Q: What sequence folds into this?
């Protein structure tokens, strides 16, 4: 399915496949458009199945000219059946897409793989990004693997684990005194001045965003070439949420999947919920907010794809909900205790949103639900501090027995 142009999502004006992200006519966002595949569904399926166990098995659906084989293999993460989580929530069939299994432990490895491969095709020699943390990790690691210098711009108040795990790869870490939206504005200005820098989520954003489709492709392939009935995924910029659905649409269009789009449920933290607020108000217009939440990887107050996320939720009979920071902490524990998967705060948001939908009776027990867990718990370790007890004892059997009398040898 060859990429043929960049196309404005608002006025449909097309542009060549270069480093460009905004429409000159209407300032709308650009995205990659494709011509219909020349191959039959059987041939496409055969090519995918013969491909590597990475996201490059979906190369036919990605905007690259040549064969990309990144130095840091990404994707093909486990889709885990979560019966104990389903039982706890009174649901029938729940699957967890475990994106913590990527090289830098979040789904951002996908978007960076594609953005970096395209940036190299376009001749860029420095890689940069505006990040809430996970992207910083991924850009630093993939640039290191490719032997390219990286500049990573982050809000100065980011979780320490994310800053340390970025600097370790040798990237230049720039802590900006401001929130993510300020960092993003700065990067947009810098991208205008530095023609030889690829800011993965600014000037090569249309290619970057395509990387998220691979999560949707994998879910469908791992379900045996079937669609789930419902997907619950986090919403920050709204790009991942909408691209998962785009992946399903592309595969329905070319005959690899049958059926309708699943019900799409977006998850936000109450302290940064412009998309949930817009959905509740019945409008695609997302009024910018000033983020205040422990889910920093979702703390985008002015989400670029927010309106499209609202429209997708409306179109599929889904929704966009928000949960409190306490619910986020409980969500992290619920997922860890029932599946053995420890997620960061964003996954806490997503799990708590699933729990909320279940409690509200929105999900029929016959539904097959996929929960997208986008990042690892070690990135936001503070979120579980104080949520359980550590039992300190002297190194003697009596001390152990005294503490755990209920578990005494019988
Ligand atoms: Zn336009």
A:
């Amino acid at each position: 399915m060859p990429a043929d142009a960049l196309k404005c999502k608002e006025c449909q004006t097309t542009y060549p496949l270069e480093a460009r992200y905004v429409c000159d006519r209407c300032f709308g966002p650009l995205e990659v458009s494709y011509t219909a595949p020349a191959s039959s569904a059987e041939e496409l399926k055969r090519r995918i199945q013969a491909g590597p166990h990475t996201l490059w098995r979906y190369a036919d659906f990605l905007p690259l000219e040549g064969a990309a084989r990144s130095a840091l293999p990404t994707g093909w993460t486990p889709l885990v059946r979560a019966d104990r989580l389903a039982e706890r929530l009174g649901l029938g069939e729940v699957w967890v897409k475990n994106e913590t299994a990527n090289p830098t432990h979040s789904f951002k490895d996908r978007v960076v793989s594609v953005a970096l491969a395209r940036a190299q095709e376009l001749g860029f020699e420095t890689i940069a990004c505006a990040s809430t943390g996970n992207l910083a990790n991924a850009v630093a690691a993939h640039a290191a693997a490719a032997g390219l210098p990286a500049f990573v711009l982050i809000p100065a108040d980011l979780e320490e684990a994310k800053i340390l795990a970025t600097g370790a790869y040798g990237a230049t870490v720039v802590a900006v005194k401001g929130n993510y939206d300020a960092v993003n504005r700065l990067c947009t200005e810098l991208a205008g001045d530095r023609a030889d820098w690829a800011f993965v989520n600014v000037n090569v954003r249309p290619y970057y965003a395509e990387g998220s489709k691979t999560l949707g492709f994998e879910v469908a392939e791992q379900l045996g070439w079937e669609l789930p009935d419902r997907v619950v995924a986090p919403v920050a910029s709204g790009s991942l949420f909408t691209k998962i659905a785009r992946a399903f649409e592309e595969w329905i269009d070319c005959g690899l999947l049958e059926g309708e789009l699943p019900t799409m449920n977006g998850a936000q933290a109450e302290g940064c919920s412009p998309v949930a607020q817009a959905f509740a108000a019945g409008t695609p217009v997302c009024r910018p907010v000033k983020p205040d939440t422990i889910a920093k990887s979702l703390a985008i107050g002015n989400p670029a794809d927010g309106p499209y996320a609202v429209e997708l939720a409306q179109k599929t009979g889904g929704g966009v909900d928000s949960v409190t920071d306490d619910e986020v902490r409980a969500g992290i524990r619920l997922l860890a205790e029932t599946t053995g998967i420890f997620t960061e705060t964003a996954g806490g948001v997503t799990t708590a949103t699933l729990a909320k939908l279940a409690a509200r009776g929105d999900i029929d027990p016959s539904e097959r639900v996929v929960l997208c867990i986008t990042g690892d718990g070690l990135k936001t370790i503070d979120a579980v501090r104080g949520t359980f007890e550590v039992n300190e004892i002297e190194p003697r059997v009596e001390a152990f027995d005294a503490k755990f009398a209920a578990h005494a040898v019988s």
In short: The chain has 14 helices and 13 strands. The chain has a mean pLDDT of 96. Residues 94 and 369 are 5 Å apart (CA to CA). The first helix runs from residue 41 to 49.
